[in-house]
User: What shape does this take?
Amino acid sequence: MFAFISNSLFKPFVSVANNLPWLSKKINAVAINNTVNVCRHRPHPWSTVHDYVSWTSLTDQSWSARHLPPVNKTGLPAPDALKDFFIRKQNTQQLCKKSTCLFPAFAQYLTDGFIRTKMPNAGEPDDPLRKQNSSNHQIDLCTLYGRTPEQTNQLRTKSEAQGTRGQLKSQTISGEEYSPFLFEPDGLAEKPEFSKLDKPLGLDKYPDPSFRSKIFATGGDRVNSAPQVAMMNTLFLREHNRLARALETAYPTWDDERVFQVARNTVIVLFIKIVVEEYINHISPAPFRLLADPAVAWNAPWNKPNWITTEFSLLYRWHSLIPDEIKWNGKSYSAPLTFMNNQLLLDAGLVRAFTDMSTQQAGRLGAFNTNAGLVGFEVKAIEQGRLCRLDSYASYREYVSLSKPKTFSDISSNKEVVDFLAKHYASPDDVDFYIGLFAEDTEKNSPLPPLILRMVAVDAFSQALTNPLLSEHVFQPETFSTIGWEAIQATGALRDVLDRNSPKGVGSERIGMTSSSWAYS
Amino acid sequence: MFAFISNSLFKPFVSVANNLPWLSKKINAVAINNTVNVCRHRPHPWSTVHDYVSWTSLTDQSWSARHLPPVNKTGLPAPDALKDFFIRKQNTQQLCKKSTCLFPAFAQYLTDGFIRTKMPNAGEPDDPLRKQNSSNHQIDLCTLYGRTPEQTNQLRTKSEAQGTRGQLKSQTISGEEYSPFLFEPDGLAEKPEFSKLDKPLGLDKYPDPSFRSKIFATGGDRVNSAPQVAMMNTLFLREHNRLARALETAYPTWDDERVFQVARNTVIVLFIKIVVEEYINHISPAPFRLLADPAVAWNAPWNKPNWITTEFSLLYRWHSLIPDEIKWNGKSYSAPLTFMNNQLLLDAGLVRAFTDMSTQQAGRLGAFNTNAGLVGFEVKAIEQGRLCRLDSYASYREYVSLSKPKTFSDISSNKEVVDFLAKHYASPDDVDFYIGLFAEDTEKNSPLPPLILRMVAVDAFSQALTNPLLSEHVFQPETFSTIGWEAIQATGALRDVLDRNSPKGVGSERIGMTSSSWAYS
Assistant: This one.
């Protein structure tokens, strides 16, 4: 898409195409194919298991795939010495003009579903666990449904009683539906019914029972990491249960299992629709609106089995998007005070939470702009890149058909960034992948810099549109029922789902990833 | 292929094409695409888990996929009442004109690697375990290397000592190399080093320590079922270790792991080459020689993730190919006496075993021709089809673009078969899938009847050429090393591998699946 649409010669056609569905569909297919074709298609020859091609590297998905083979580099600065690249110069955060806080909230919820690098308990930078993952390598909403059948079973009502068939367990608070709590009301003992769920990551840092008692029992171990993420999960929980109720009424002979499965089919697909039609269109620098048209992938040479790469797990660490201060329900909080704090969501309610996130600007992605509380994670990311012996930033530019930088000034127009790079690296060819990603200027009209943009787009299309539910003989009304099929057609953005899942609807509130003040330049 | 090449208009081009490599390659691609395009491409919407499409049916490969959804049929004959369809009328076995016993030996070894229906201990016909499998859904030579990393580890020497790197464990008997024995010499205690291997199936019926003490420790639980199968496994064991020795010599800096992996890459690919270039060409009714050209699959719309179907697990039960009497090393044995009897292989040695199998005719595949000792398995197959509520034989004909039979005589030219069908079924539309498969006449110039032929060919190409080792960016000399790459190029048939893995070579012995007396008509 970006390879093609950002071409200015193409611009005059955009407004025409947006009004002609058949032309729009054709341009959409060309744009998506051009986007994916900037680099090699899967299967990737290599994974993190071996330095060479092996049956294990081609089949064992507990190791992360890799776009480029490992290299041996010497003379690179110590990861900790690169910390300053992320720390603010004047301690003033720069904000992103295009994106609201709904953008990082969605990005985190989305990627937590399939970027699942294993985290060693001890945290040694060279622990080989960091080369492995627990991903299903699909957009399967495992954040909501669990990663494994055992987890899914524990999250379901599994009840044949009228009015409960096919539903996910939930509770009502102040007239609104949420996931059940993981702990007993005292915040100490975990409910045995949730014994198979992945434990919420980072909870050990929040021993306060008032936090713990509000932790949700759900499929994802990062859903509780911030109330914005729990907010997303709550939205899709409600949509699942809404669909289950409608299916049960429409198909009274269906058992719990069938109602559940058809509702899940539907929710996964409408989630993917939002990924492409809201999220990717927000990221895209082009005003042309891309469509989640499954047919584009059916016969595409790039429709090959998904496999999340170790590069992908790094390029999605967008810590600088997180603003220092976040308003919840009229009150401002320092970001770290919101972490694992679901009370903020419960107090606001779902519509207010979405509205709050849609009316605050996200941070600007890039150098010298990470919240102090998150800088440690940046160093860990550099360490992971070194552990996996990733090739340089310059090599990855070349890999996705972008020009290789000849000077440090080719990487950034920001003198401070250029000076930093020149101070720490002997040549532009040496710059670490993780540093280069965030050293670039953001692309015009996009919240992302060019290399991230390109690699995100390749994987977004080549791993979302390959979902088996979108495949040629599955993406049919029967798979979703009339009720599910209509819900899919009626969904292009988070706002659509929120409107039908809040007691009073959304009304005229602004819900979106793109700031109200944004205009394409 | 069969859809295209059996077209007689095409025949005049065959001899020309066989002599022009570029034309041959083009025709090969057209033939393979035509073969695979007779039916729907994967992903299959259904598996045996649900009657409808679900995330589980699309992702959990422990359930078998299915080509057609389940149906409810009533009024079908009891499976046991269909036993007579397989039992000989005059107790005289009919033989196949085209195939030697090397054909069923290879077919069994090949399919045991990926058709892995779970077998319930108790054997109830409606045990839902029969809907599940333990397959990796790949041609990965798990018969040799094991299904799991733990099994692979136990089968390897895992030694860095000079002369042993990268090898599979083996032993020398009478100057020839074989897998080690699973049991201690007394035939009673299993060696602890092989604790993770799948137990040999059916061994409980052979408690005699003289049989048990000769059971090989290897990856497949059916490798020991007959000495012909152990013979195949021995061949590829030797090829692996031969390559490992050559690699270790050529690349003295490579460790055990790398030598092993590169040898395995090579052996899997040369096995697939034999599947297409010897086995499929033997099955094919056309004199045109099909090539295992990986490029055919690279951009093909049918290149979608493999998933073995429950139909595939049934249509490959070729019991009637097994002759009643089999000669081993100059002596004739009743077939059941050869089961699990590896002593026959050890006494003959590998070349003699291959020669013996290549000079005896296999049974003719079809009705009234199964060895009495195997008829019970035919009934179990019918039961499995009923358990999975398979659609009728007629529906599967239609599914793969063959005509639907209007009368019983459309199915077979054999009056006894027609009478049997008419006696047991109300109409040709009712005939069970498993019965119809074997009721058909064999196709002219092929050992297989048309429906089996077509379904075997679809899955052979669409699941063999999709192997990740054959993918565009993996099928390169670097993946196999020069030694491995040359071995692949030098292999088109079992004979090639046998010749380089027997102390004195093959000489002028005939080694092949096609009988020496065979001529295309």
